[in-house]
Structure formats: structure tokens, C-alpha cells
């Protein structure tokens, strides 16, 4: 076992231990006493249900995480990567096509292996807690559409990356970085109108009191409202959400139909104000810039390690190749990705606080945002008392109690 294998195994072990520890602490932090702040929103039964939901999802995460780890290690140490490489090479295609087939087979195999867990999560766990609205037909169609888009969009992108590292020389990482950056920007522009409607129906918010209230607010904060839509989230889940996506003329603000059903007009304006806060504070642009820089660092490091013989020896490979190196480097890069992920989560939570503050200040009604957060936590059976270590590792949004305190402090 060489240094590459040791680094990768150590990273996998550390990640697994951190995940187990944070989840264990999170379960221990569950409090039987409902926080006073939520006494008017939760009843005893709903609060107990939210805690049970956290327990069930956590235990299911233990199962899926342990299974994934066993599969990866089993495939690795049984020589599976080399075995598959020999099979694909024997088909006699060129290096580029061989690489696409090799990576494609691994992705499809992972999808198939994880499919039973996805089915159980949707049709057993989410069903048990009253969330699931997905039919078997919708589930299958989502899967087919996802795979179809991966082939249609992902294959050319992957082919381009492989080609650059096969034939473009020392500057391959720079060309690949440029290609992925261009792809990301294009997808941000076209996804709201071309891709997202493949999975959900976006209906323009009809005229009425809600639309008038929203238009009055957007005019007040000078936000160019190009698209305000209702998304049929209820076709998959009873959970509520809202999001802002796209840029330029393709900006879209989408409110889930479940959100509209469960909230007052003032609360919905507060939700929209939060999403507009992300736009006004340039969080979307900042996030994209950070992501692009991360990608550049990753490709640069890839160019350094791609031809490292020891990396291929660690996976018992008889032949070196760009496509296999891409996968192995992804595992070697995991420690950096883990550290960056923690910092990105911290930044994301900071942005959420800022968007909350923007909503509270510009609507002039902080309690509308507070009541919205309370209802959302109840509707989604959120954990009201998560452990700080679990939050630090996993939360892109601050815990709801922290958000409420921050809003009231700023307000």
C-alpha cells in the first residue's frame, strides 16, 4: 500500500468518523422539551413527529453511508477498477470513447446500486411521515429524464475534459477550466427555461392580492421582476420551499404551491424578500465566483497528479489513462474538497443571515419572516435543536432558532 492509498483511505476513514460523530451528537441534542419560541406553532404530537423524523433519517443515513463505503472499498481492493478497465479496453474503441464508456458504466452502476435506497427513502420513509406525493410513474420519469440529460449534456462536457487532458499538453487544465466555466454560465442562463420545466410545471403567478403585494414590494426595492412562478412541488412532496435562479432575462423566482397554500400573503412577500436579498447582496454571483475558483484549483491539481504512477498503483491498475486518473484524483482530492465544503457552508449560512436581515428591513415587518420560518420548520419537520458540530459540518442554512434571534436583533 503506497502513500496515495494511505491518504485516500485516511480521508475516507476521517470523513466516516466525522459523519458518525456529528450524527451521534445531533441525535443526543434532541430535546424532549419544545423550545418556548414554537409553543404557538407546534403541538406535542407534531414536535414528537419531527424528532422521530430526524432519528429515522439519521439511522437511514448510517445504513446508506456504511453500504456505500463497503461497496467502494470492496470494488477497490478486489481490483474492480482494473477489471472494468480491461473489459472496456477489449472492446477496441479509441482512448476517448473508452474513457466515456468506463466512466459511464461506473456512474450507471452506482445509480443502480443506490436505487433501492432511493426508492425506500421516497416510498417508505417520506411516505410514513406524510411527505411523499411522488407516484411510481413520476419517480421513473425523473430517473429517465435525469439519465437522458446526463447523456445529452454531461457526455459532451466530459468528452471535452478528457480530450483536453489527452491532447492539449501542459495547458490542458486551463482549457478544461475555461470549458467548465463557460458550461456553468450557460447552464445558469438556460436551465430555468429549458431544463427545470422538464421536471416541474412553472405557472406564472395569477393576478390577485398576492401578485399585487409582491409587485408593490419589488417596485419598492427596485428589483426587475422578470419571472414570478408557482412550481408544482406538491407532485413530489408536501414540503415547502422557494428559490431564485438564473440571471439576465432568465431570472426566475419560484414559489412552491405548498408554500402558497400554507402561508399568508405577508409571509409570502417576506419569503420573496429573502430570495431577492440573495440577489441584491450578490450572493449568487459570489457563490459562482467561488465555485469557478474551486474548479480552477481542482483542475490545476489534477494536471499535477494525473500522471502519477503511484496513484494508479494504489488502485491496482495495469494501464495508466486519463479517464481512470480522473476518478482516482477525485478520491485523492477529497480532503481538500472536505475542507472547502466546510468553509462554503459557513459562507452560505452567513448569506442566509444577510438575506433574512434584508427581508426584515425592507418589508418593515420582521415578524412576518419569523412566522414564516416557524411554519416552514413545522411543515418540513425540521430539527429545532441541532448540535453545533453537525450544523458546522452539514448546514447550508443556520438553525431556525438562530435565524429568528438574528432577525429580531437586526429588526
TrEMBL record:
Q: Transmembrane ranges?
A: 6-25, 60-79, 99-125, 146-166, 172-191, 288-308, 320-343
Its keywords, alphabetically, are: Hydrolase, Membrane, Metal-binding, Metalloprotease, Protease, Transmembrane, Transmembrane helix, Zinc
Q: Which residues form the Peptidase M48 domain?
A: 204-408
Reported cofactor(s) = Zn(2+)
Q: How is the cofactor bound?
A: Binds 1 zinc ion per subunit.
Specify the CAAX prenyl protease 1 N-terminal domain's residue ranges.
26-201
Q: InterPro entries given for it?
A: CAXX_Prtase_1, Peptidase_M48, Peptidase_M48_N
Question: What family is it from?
Answer: Belongs to the peptidase M48 family.
Full protein name: M48 family metallopeptidase
Organism, per UniProt?
Answer: Gracilimonas halophila
Amino acid at each position: 500500500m503506497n502513500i496515495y492509498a494511505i491518504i485516500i483511505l485516511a480521508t475516507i476513514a476521517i470523513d466516516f468518523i466525522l459523519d458518525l460523530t456529528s450524527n451521534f451528537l445531533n441525535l443526543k441534542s434532541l430535546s424532549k422539551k419544545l423550545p418556548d419560541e414554537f409553543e404557538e406553532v407546534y403541538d406535542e404530537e407534531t414536535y414528537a413527529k419531527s424528532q422521530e423524523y430526524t432519528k429515522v433519517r439519521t439511522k437511514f443515513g448510517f445504513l446508506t453511508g456504511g453500504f456505500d463505503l463497503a461497496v467502494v472499498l470492496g470494488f477497490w481492493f478486489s481490483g474492480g477498477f482494473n477489471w472494468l478497465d480491461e473489459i472496456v479496453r477489449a472492446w477496441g474503441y479509441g482512448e476517448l470513447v473508452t474513457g466515456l464508456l468506463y466512466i459511464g458504466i461506473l456512474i450507471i452502476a452506482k445509480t443502480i446500486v443506490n436505487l433501492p435506497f432511493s426508492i425506500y427513502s421516497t416510498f417508505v420513509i417520506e411516505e410514513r411521515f406524510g411527505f411523499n406525493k411522488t407516484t411510481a410513474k413520476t419517480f421513473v420519469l425523473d430517473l429517465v429524464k435525469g439519465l437522458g440529460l446526463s447523456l445529452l449534456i454531461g457526455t459532451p462536457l466530459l468528452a471535452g475534459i478528457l480530450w483536453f487532458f489527452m491532447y492539449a499538453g501542459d495547458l490542458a487544465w486551463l482549457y478544461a477550466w475555461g470549458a467548465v466555466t463557460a458550461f456553468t454560465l450557460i447552464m445558469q442562463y438556460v436551465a430555468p427555461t429549458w431544463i427545470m420545466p422538464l421536471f416541474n410545471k412553472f405557472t406564472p403567478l395569477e393576478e390577485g392580492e398576492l401578485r399585487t403585494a409582491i409587485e408593490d414590494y419589488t417596485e419598492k426595492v427596485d428589483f426587475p421582476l422578470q419571472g414570478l412562478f408557482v412550481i408544482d412541488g406538491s407532485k413530489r412532496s408536501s414540503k415547502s420551499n422557494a428559490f431564485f435562479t438564473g440571471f439576465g432575462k432568465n431570472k426566475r423566482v419560484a414559489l412552491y404551491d405548498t408554500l402558497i397554500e400554507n402561508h399568508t400573503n405577508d409571509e409570502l412577500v417576506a419569503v420573496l424578500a429573502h430570495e431577492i436579498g440573495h440577489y441584491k447582496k450578490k450572493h449568487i454571483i459570489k457563490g459562482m465566483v467561488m465555485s469557478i475558483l474551486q474548479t480552477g484549483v481542482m483542475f490545476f491539481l489534477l494536471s499535477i497528479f494525473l500522471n502519477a504512477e503511484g496513484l494508479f498503483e494504489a488502485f491496482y491498475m495495469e494501464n495508466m489513462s486519463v479517464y481512470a486518473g480522473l476518478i482516482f484524483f477525485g478520491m485523492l482530492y477529497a480532503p481538500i474538497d472536505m475542507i472547502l465544503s466546510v468553509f462554503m457552508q459557513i459562507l452560505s449560512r452567513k448569506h442566509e443571515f444577510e438575506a433574512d436581515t434584508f427581508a426584515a428591513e425592507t418589508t418593515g415587518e420582521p415578524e412576518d419572516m419569523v412566522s414564516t420560518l416557524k411554519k416552514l420548520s413545522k411543515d418540513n419537520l425540521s430539527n429545532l435543536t441541532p448540535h453545533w458540530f453537525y450544523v458546522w459540518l452539514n448546514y447550508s442554512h443556520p438553525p431556525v432558532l438562530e435565524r429568528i434571534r438574528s432577525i429580531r436583533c437586526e429588526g
